[in-house]
Amino acid sequence: MPATAPTHARPRGAARRDALLDAVLRVVAEVGVDAVTHRRVAEEAGLPLASTTYWFESKEHLLTAALERAAERDIERLRAFLSEVRDNTADPLATVVRAILGPTEASAQSCRAWLLATYALMLEAARRPALREVTTRWTDAYLEALAPLMAAAGSTQPRSDAELLLAATDGLLIEQLASDDATDLAPRLWRLADALVKP
After folding, report:
1. What pLDDT score does 114 carry?
2. Which of 31, 70, 96, 186 could be 35's S-S partner, Cβ–Cβ 3.0 to 4.6 Å?
3. Which pLDDT score is estimated for 79?
4. Selection from 106, 68, 107, 100 nearest residue 81 by Cα
5. Is 43 exposed, middle or buried (0-12, 13-18, 19+ CB in 10 A)?
């Protein structure tokens, strides 16, 4: 989801809704959750204000639908990746680390914008229950996908260990965003994953 200037194309129907949600994520990445309004999102998407009010009755609806879109796209990416490597998982820990870091392997600008938007919305979930439901479903999808791989790697508590890896990744990524650091996180996650499965 690149953080680019608003497009002036005029998508129709569901494509218009998706364009608005992508615009929400760009606004959140660029200036924060508080700046999200129907007018600002319509301008960012290059669409009339009536488009946002037609699809989304409130700011909360805009934010929730945008986070749902981000979650759905990432879960699709995760499942597609795991489907591709299903028959080649001789090293399940490598697969786990690659699956977790997948969204951060895009171009630096688009990755940073995507992470800023999604983490900002996840933090907003502390105040908005609808967002909390999305973050819970998103995390559960990762845990369900990664727990079998952790078990295959020798973990005696695969779901709990997958949860620790995800939490560690979130913490490291937030630290990177705050410091504008671009250090490769894979070696650190490898160390943690390996420690979790050692007897």
Report:
1. 93
2. 31
3. 94
4. 100
5. middle
